[in-house]
Amino acid sequence: MKRREFLRTAGGAAGAATATGAAAAPAAADGGVAALQEDGNASESGGDGPDAGGNETDGGNESTGGGLPGAGETQTITVGPGGDLIFDPDSVEILPGTTVVWEWDSDTHNVEPESQPDGADWAGETDIYNTGHTYQHTFTVEGTYAYFCRPHRASGMEGEIVVTEDAGGGAGGGGSYEPPDPAHMGIPVQKHFVGALAFMGIFVTLVFTFYLLKYGESAHTAAPSKED
Q1: Can you tell me the distance from the alpha carbon of 132 to that of 157, in angstroms, rounded to the nearest whole number?
Q2: Cα–Cα distance between 73 and 59 in angstroms, integer?
């Protein structure tokens, strides 16, 4: 193959690789934006129906199941769920100003403090109550509060509340930053490799061109300046 013909061929291959990368990049971007828009629309439509919405709570601010509510919200703890001799959850972490609500789901339980931070005035619910009873307290002093159910302490029915400004890395805390996962943002991860593959194709083409120009010239092709 002559040098001029090879250059034309290599140039065409490089141009095709560049065009492929340029066409694929907007497509990947459009797909990611569309996925994000779909996710956003799904989130905005969360309150239109009785079964919709990720913010459905009893009072608008209630957090259950061991979540991390913010100050001024509530955290629910179930006392003896289904007759089990436990507090569910048995350990929670909350911001100062959060109200904890205990709800009795079986009989003969109480919420008796064992230890609490200096300056706290939590008296607990030391009387014994049955299913349907509720008790609440707003925690403002930071520290660890340990409590138990006196009738069932021997069975390990104990709980713990940690009040801290760092709860969940929230507004008052110093939680570490974690970069978003593209897969969770609705952008298929494989599309991020399109651009890299396009540039790799261009690079390989250039290396192949250099190699053939330097070492792969046909033995029957001579430069104009060479003598026969």
Answers
A1: 19
A2: 9
Q: What per-residue confidence (pLDDT) applies to 199?
A: 79
| DSSP characters over 180-223 | PPTTTTT--GGGGGHHHHHHHHHHHHHHHHHHHHHH---TT---
State the pTM of this model: 0.47
User: In the block, which residue shows the tokens 């690789």?
Assistant: 17
Report the CATH architecture of 62-169.
Sandwich (2.60)
Using alpha carbons only, give the angle 173, 177, 178 rounded to the nearest 5 degrees.
Answer: 135
Q: Cα dihedral sign for 55, 141, 159, 135?
A: negative
Q: Which residue has the tokens 């003969």?
A: 108
Q: pLDDT tens across 137-179, in order?
A: 999 999 999 999 999 999 999 999 999 998 765 444 444 456 6
Query: How many residues belong to the chain?
Result: 228
* Structure tokens, 215: 């070492």
Would you call 116 helix, strand, or coil by DSSP?
Answer: coil
Q: Are strands 158-163 and 125-129 parallel, antiparallel or unpaired?
A: unpaired
Q: Where are the domains of the chain?
A: 3-35+186-215, 62-169
